[in-house]
Amino acid sequence: MENKEYTAKDFSSDQEVRWCPGCGDYSILKQVQSVMPLIGVPKENIVFVSGIGCSSRFPYYMETFGMHSIHGRATAIASGLKAARPDLSVWIITGDGDSLSIGGNHLIHLLRRNFDTNILLFNNQIYGLTKGQYSPTSEKGKKTKSTPMGSIDHPFNPLALCIGADATFVARSMDREPKHMREMLIRSNDHKGTSLLEIYQNCNVFNDGAFFGMTDKATKLNQTLFLENKRPLVFGENEHKGIRLDGFKPEIVSLNDFSLDDLWVHDESDRVKAGLLTRFFDIDFPRPFGVFYSKNKPTYEDALIKQIDEAVKDKGKGNLDDLIKGSNTWTIQ
Amino acid sequence: MTQETVEKVVIFFAGDSGDGIQLTGSQFTNTAALHGNDLSTFPDFPAEIRAPQGTLAGVSGFQISFGSTEIFTPGDECDVLVVMNVAALKANLKRLKTGGTIVVNSDGFDRRNLRLAGYENDENPLLDNSLTNFRVIEINVTKLTRECLLDVNLGVKEKDRCKNMFVLGFVYWMYNRSLDHTINFLTQKFKNKSDVLDANIRALKAGYNFANTCEISSSRFEVKPAKMTSGKYRNIMGNQATAIGLIAASKQSSLDLFYGSYPITPASDILHELSKHKNFGVRSFQAEDEIAAISACIGASFGGLFGVTATSGPGVALKGEAIGLAFMLELPLLIVNVQRGGPSTGLPTKTEQSDLLQAVYGRNGEAPVPVVSASTPSDCFESVMEACRIAIEHMTPVFFLSDGYIANGAEPWLYPHSKNLKKISVPMTKVNNSNYLPYKRDKKFVREWAIPGMPGLEHRVGGLEKENLTGNVSYDSSNHEFMVKTRAKKVDEIANYIPKQELDAGSKNAQVLVLAWGSTYGAIKTAVKELLNEGYSVAHAHLRYIHPFPKNLGSLIRKHDKILIPEINNGQLIKLIRDKYLVDAIPMNKIQGIPFEAREIKNRIIELHDGE
Ligand SMILES: Cc1ncc(C[n+]2csc(CCOP(=O)(O)OP(=O)(O)O)c2C)c(N)n1
Ligand code: SF4
Ligand SMILES: [Mg+2]
Predict the structure, then answer these.
(1) What is the spatial distance between Cα B391 and Cα B250, in angstroms, rounded to a whole number?
(2) DSSP 8-class letter at B462
(3) What is the CA(A130)–ligand 2 centre distance, in A?
(4) What is this model's ipTM?
(5) Which of B310, B379, B501, B507 is buried most deeply by CB count within 10 Å?
(6) Looking at the domain covering B234-420, what would its CATH class be?
(7) Model confidence pLDDT, tens digit, residues B94-121
(8) B422 pLDDT above the threshold of 50
(9) pLDDT at B1
């Protein structure tokens, strides 16, 4: 089985894809299907688990094992699956509402436990499936069906939250950058531990253009920052701008005034700086894409299996009759 | 000194939660068991974890009923009350029958203790003639214990911890018991602390010898061994039996156990017990909440293990949506509910049977889930195995209902040999190509299971309505109706794979049938047995399978003039019975967080039998 050569088509199920025409989810599906042949895992050992939302329909379209579950719980279901079957490649598909609102609790607990699973968080900053209410990532002031006067909720900064929950792999990509997304998918897969990949996804029906500035030719170069490990943070037209650290205070500088050597050099293993990067979240700084943080830490399932092995080593494989009997018995003639 | 033979004795040990009451009780229990008595026990924990010493809130108790006859409950009224301080007396005097014996540590009646227990101005129940209806044996336990340990190299605090052994020795003498078992136990427990071991054994013997020599304990009782079915026994608590039953089911099905749970009284002990048995391959997982716990179990079952989650009522409320998912996916899953007093947080440390309707009905949509219940502590073993068998063989979530009374109660168990346990067959598919249809069913309406790792069998499952056979999403209206009916039929069909209902006692045409479920078993059994001896026309049927009911239940209950349904709730089984069989059953309800007493049931049966 291992040597089987798959193509993207092998991962496409016979179900008709039902997202709205033009939805960013299509691009993500395509990139995931095209990356699957590259990860070297037999199809039958891959499982996609999702919650509820437009994005969560995803598993139906993948010719792998899959479960479309209940709202917010894909992370918890995947935790049990991975604990039960560490041999499987487990992918979690979730939306911003699914993972950060109803499922916020399970998300942070999955991250701290560090099961070796891959989370793809489709962030369209809206509730798509329920037809357009604001979500926990919608910006303040957003007018939606449920906030006709504008949202008064302060939004989550998802990656800051994940770093705060001690995630071991945090990255961001977007639907409009297929090549980058493929690269990030492969990086997510390669990371042993929970990888969280936030993917900016345009909902062209209820929140069209949410990431317009980051995708439009005119503004994109100034509003995005593509991270590369061990490389200085540069962005802008002709890469003429950079980010410099003054202590722990980042500042945007012109490369006319500073040289590359003066700039902040990205280090994926630096958790503190990754935290700073997640805070590039308002208009003054370009939005970072790429791997913010990646660190190897023991996974939950490895520790669990180790305890079981140790218990077997210490006490021997469990004997049911000894267990039933206990330590104190008596006989009645 | 006199020696009297008695058939049955109920003792209640009570003291401060630091007094080692539970240990004293369990030692007395094991010794009684080894002596061949039948018995039943129940601990009474203080509601507060660290309530101040000497206060009523801090009193811990342990009740044991043991005898030379069959014992089915920890007893109604107590014959003997053993109290380590005044608070323990005040809190539990109501349990003692008139003429009963009180063994008192009079050192626990000093000014401070009296004040903490709410006695003012030198009031003292030992001095004010309020106990004249009882036989009071006063012992300066603290003083005597310290004296017998004079030359032991331990601090006063540590010496005082041996007080319970002094009292235990005393009670052992009263009932003519051997000290051997407890000495063996102490030797094991303190094998690395020779001073403490020595002190405990000395105190135990001192208490025994004190009883032998002093005049206050003038009578001694003999409780002969009971005539019990021959075989090998152990003592077992309900939660322990549940945990062991789960491991047994895992062995019998060859599916590793995944146990996901979030701590809650009174279910947590199952988590504790299972976590000790990782060498059986048990994967225990303490989740962040009940929703995560059951969700993880669903993930594990999807992966081909057997997912089990346990909780109590509030946790079941949280799990509702996920139970619906498991029902829709048709995966094996067990939900254990160790019931406690509700609603809401209710009475967490008290027992109740009030989650039956929640188990039967508590989900959105048409989602019938099989329900199995246990009737005694040791019955948890077989019942939970049955619940697991149904879950696995019929590919469905199943409820297993226990309650606080069963969970913490203990009784001797004629334990089985594993070779006599039923095998559980797993409906794993034999198809090995893409012809696999995830929702194709066999004659039991059970679908075939395929798990990740099986090449060519990749498929998707989900909570959306699915097309018959393929499992693909379907919004077709007639398909939905068909699927709802099919899933219901599958659950109803289980009635063909469970035993028929039998009478526990009495004859099939008896005038009054007592029909019940769960932990009311012991009290009803006791009452009915006595009434049968007295010539009443009464029978007892106790349900293990509540959904679906055994096939013959309707014909069985209709043979009786009157059907009495006692429950520790406001009437739940009775609703199901009336609904299903259209019979005018008579409710009997107690909702005080405590079990029925046998005599309450007995009196009600007599009323029905003779009157009305
Ligand atoms: C328990 C529960 N509550 C509410 C819903 C309704 N609901 C379905 S999806 C959703 C929000 C989806 O938003 P998101 O996760 O961002 O996914 P998207 O549709 O945007 O991809 C809601 C509120 C539900 N299915 N279940
Ligand atoms: S509603 Fe939005 S997110 Fe949902 S499918 Fe349509 S475009 Fe995509
Ligand atoms: Mg969304």
Answers:
(1) 12
(2) E
(3) 10
(4) 0.98
(5) B310
(6) alpha beta
(7) 999 999 999 999 999 999 999 999 998 8
(8) yes
(9) 65
Judge whether B2-222 and B512-609 match in fold. Answer: no
- Specify which residues B284 forms β-bridges with: B259
| Region A8-210: CATH code | 3.40.50.970
Instruction: Give mean pLDDT in consecutive 10-residue pieces for chain A, a chain of 333 residues.
Output: 78 96 98 97 98 98 98 98 98 98 98 98 98 97 96 97 98 98 98 98 97 95 97 96 95 96 98 97 90 98 98 97 94 88
Q: What is the secondary structure of B289-306 as a DSSP string? A: SHHHHHHHHHHHHHTTSE
Chain A residues 36-55 within an 8 A CB cutoff of chain B: 42-47, 49, 52
Q: Which CATH architecture has domain B2-222?
A: 3-Layer(aba) Sandwich (3.40)
Strand order in the sheet with B410-414: A329-332, B231-237, B410-414, B38-44, B59-67, B8-16, B78-83, B96-105, B135-139
Length of chain A in terms of residues written:
333
Domain B512-609 fold is Rossmann fold (3.40.50)
Cα(B113)–Cα(B107) distance, integer angstroms? 9
Please classify residue B126 by burial: count the beta carbons closer than 10 Å to its beta carbon, then call 0-12 exposed, 13-18 middle and 19+ buried.
middle
- Find how far residue B160's CA is from the centre of its chain: 32
Range with lowest mean pLDDT among A224-228, B124-128, B356-360: B124-128
Mean pLDDT of B38-64: 88
Question: Strand B283-286's sheet: what is its strand order?
Answer: B283-286, B257-261, B306-311, B333-339, B397-403, B371-373, B545-547
Q: What is the pTM of this model?
A: 0.96
From A17, A23, A52, the mutation candidate for ligand 1 (largest count of ligand atoms within 8 A of CB) is A52
Q: Is the dihedral of CA A49, A55, A56, A62 positive or negative?
A: negative
The domain locations on chain B are: 2-222, 234-420, 427-497, 512-609
Q: Which residue has the tokens 């993972």?
A: A99
What mean pLDDT is reported for chain B? 95
Q: Are B53 and B31 in contact (CB under 8 A)?
A: no
Percent of chain B exceeding pLDDT 90 equals: 93
* Cross-chain residue pair B292–A109, CB shorter than 8 Å: yes
Please tell me the predicted confidence (pLDDT) of residue A2: 45
| Å between B160 CA and nearest CA of chain A | 28
**Which residues are CB-neighbours of B40 under 8 A, at least 6 positions away?**
B64, B65, B71, B72, B73, B74, B75, B409, B410, B411, B522
Q: Which helix (H) or strand (E) segment is B486 a member of?
A: helix B477-493
Q: Which helix (H) or strand (E) holds B285?
A: strand B283-286
